[in-house]
Amino acid sequence: MSAELKRMSDLLKSGATMMSEACPECGSPLFKVGSDIICAKCNKPVVILRAAEEESKIIGSRILDDLEQTVLSKIREMNSVISSEGDVERLTQYGRALSTWLETLEKVRRLRSG
Ligand SMILES: [Zn+2]
Fold first, then answer.
1. What percentage of the chain has pLDDT greater than the value 90?
2. pLDDT of residue 47
3. What's the 26 CA to ligand 1 centre distance in angstroms?
4. Residues measured by CB to lie within 5 Å of ligand 1, the ion
5. By CB neighbour count within 10 A (0-12 exposed, 13-18 middle, 19+ buried), where does 39 fall?
6. Where are the domains of the chain?
7. DSSP for 29-84?
8. Among 19, 33, 38, 83, which is most exposed with the fewest C-beta within 10 angstroms?
């Protein structure tokens, strides 16, 4: 029996209950012992921070908001440059850059909605 399995069975024997949540570090099932949450594989208490998780999601969406604004301002810049540009070759280059920015914008918006 592996040390991990031994710890799991010891935990269960001591009255611990297996939780539906998995260890954020190793992905094995977590055990609840009283008010403690323990990972049998990592052999240490795990703190499930839902609030922190939510917070990081909020921060993540803020970054995406900022990124969207940056991309939009770049697209605006490109637009004004393109409208005053007469050189076909440069216009082609700007067009390519613009298409990259638009793709980025699309990705950012997809990430935000997802
Ligand atoms: Zn673990």
1. 52
2. 81
3. 4
4. 23, 25-26, 39, 41-42
5. buried
6. 3-45, 50-113
7. EEEEETTEEEETTTTEE----HHHHHHHHHHHHHHHHHHHHHHHHHHHHHHHHHHH
8. 83
Distance 44 CA to ligand 1 centre (A): 8
pLDDT band at 46 (very low <50, low <70, confident <90, very high): confident
13, 8, 14: which is closest to 40 by C-alpha?
Answer: 8
The Cα angle at residue 42 between residues 38 and 46, in degrees rounded to 5: 35
Report the pLDDT averaged over residues 22-33. Answer: 90
Q: Which two tokens stand for residue 58?
A: 């909020």
With tokens 């297996």, the residue in question is: 18
